[in-house]
Amino acid sequence: MGPSDALLFILPAYIANATPVVTGGGKPMDFEMTFIDGRRILGKGKTWRGFFSGILSGTILGLLIWELLEFEEKSITLAILLSLGALVGDCTGSFIKRRLNIERGRPLPLVDQLDFLLGALVFSEIVTDLPIEAIIFLVVITPVIHLGFNVLAYLLGLKNTWY
Ligand code: CTP
Ligand code: MG
Predict the structure, then answer these.
(1) 118-161 pLDDT, tens per residue?
(2) Residue 84 lies in a domain
(3) Helix (H) or strand (E) holding 30
(4) How far, in Å, from the CA of 93 to the mean position of ligand 2?
(5) Which of 36, 72, 97, 155 could crosslink 102 through cysteines, CB 3.0-4.6 Å?
(6) Which domain holds residue 104?
(7) Which residues of the chain fall short of a pLDDT of 70?
């Protein structure tokens, strides 16, 4: 599996993770509840609408692009697992940030850029066995791509921060 196949493989996760920036809002996933440390479980940045719309768009758009670009490994199950895994990983990252007393929206380098990727990779392992070189490539390249898209979203006025 070459670099372009690895990127095509992970695409549903990227789409799933990016979607809530546009679609998010409404009821927070932690229902405004606090953890034993007195801070929010996940915080205001994780909403049910963002969560489900992310899974939906990652799965549907991912499958569509896989179809168009004739990705060999395309399967509905894999697209769902990558999208769901991305959003679960994203929530896990927020959980960790809140425990470290980092406010919602404040940066935690590497966790912000890799939480969704690691979630997607772990979930996808249920149905596929990604070569280690592909995993390493994605772990290295994803923070770079993530930062690039965030700067773009910031310039387009979709985000208030560039990171
Ligand atoms: N978002 C959402 N629901 C999710 C994930 C994201 O509504 N499950 C939306 C929120 O509006 C969030 C934005 O997408 O502010 C960007 O996501 P992210 O950077 O992951 O959240 P942060 O606001 O930075 O919060 P955190 O500090 O918890 O990472
Ligand atoms: Mg953020």
Answers:
(1) 999 999 999 999 999 999 999 999 999 999 999 998 999 988 89
(2) yes
(3) none
(4) 10
(5) 97
(6) 3-155
(7) none
